[in-house]
Every structure is written in structure tokens, then in C-alpha cells.
């Protein structure tokens, strides 16, 4: 999945993000606004993982979206 597509359609992808990372709040998702680096940072904070782990999770999530 192309991140530009995710960013451009953030409102539609918010639900997918919330399904995957349920500890992220609506306020977190508002602040992220489709920015990948913001998503990675919020995952680091909420889940207490390092940057590498958060990047890996986001990459796996992107790959799993396929052709949505």
C-alpha cells in the first residue's frame, strides 16, 4: 500500500489503524493526520516499544492492507 494513498484518505484508514492499534485514541488519530512518522511515534509512546519495532509494525500493517 502506498503511504500517499493512506495519507490522502486518512479518514477511511483511521478505522484500520484503530483495529490494529486499539490503544491509540481518537485524539491521537486526529494529531497523526495521515503522517507516517507521527503514527510510528504514537505507537512508540502508547505501546512502549522502540522506534525499530514501531517501524516494523507499521510496515507490516501497510503490507497487509494490500489493494484496499
Comma- or semicolon-separated keywords:
68 residues, single chain
Explain the overall architecture.
The chain is mainly alpha-helical. The chain has one domain (3-65): YjbJ (Protein Yjbj, Chain: A, Orthogonal Bundle). It has 5 helices and no strands. The chain has helices at 3-8, 10-20, 26-32, 36-47, 51-65. Helix 3 (26-32) runs antiparallel to helix 4 (36-47) and helix 4 (36-47) packs across helix 5 (51-65). The protein is globular, with a radius of gyration of 11 Å. The N and C termini lie close together (8 Å). The relative contact order is 0.18. The model has no long low-confidence stretch (mean pLDDT 94).
Would you kindly provide a brief summary of this structure?
The chain has 68 residues and is mostly helical. It has 5 helices and no strands. The protein has a single domain, classed as YjbJ (Protein Yjbj, Chain: A), CATH 1.10.1470.
The count of β-strands is: 0
Number of domains: 1
What's the name of the CATH homologous superfamily? YjbJ
Task: Please give the count of helices.
Answer: 5
* H/E series: HHHHH
Q: Rg, please?
A: 11 Å
Helical percentage = over 70%
The CATH architecture comes to Orthogonal Bundle
Overall shape? globular
Report low-confidence residues grouped into runs of 5 or more: none
Topology-level CATH name: Protein Yjbj, Chain: A
**Biggest β-sheet, characterized?**
none
N- and C-termini, Cα separation: 8 Å
Percent strand equals under 5%
What value does the average pLDDT take?
A: 94
CATH class membership: Mainly Alpha
**SSE class:** mainly alpha
Amino acid at each position: 500500500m502506498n503511504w500517499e494513498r493512506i495519507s490522502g484518505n486518512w479518514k477511511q484508514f483511521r478505522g484500520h489503524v484503530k483495529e490494529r492499534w486499539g490503544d491509540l485514541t481518537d485524539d491521537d488519530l486526529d494529531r497523526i493526520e495521515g503522517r507516517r512518522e507521527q503514527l510510528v511515534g504514537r505507537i512508540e509512546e502508547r505501546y512502549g516499544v522502540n522506534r525499530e519495532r514501531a517501524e516494523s509494525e507499521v510496515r507490516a500493517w501497510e503490507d497487509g492492507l494490500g489493494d484496499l
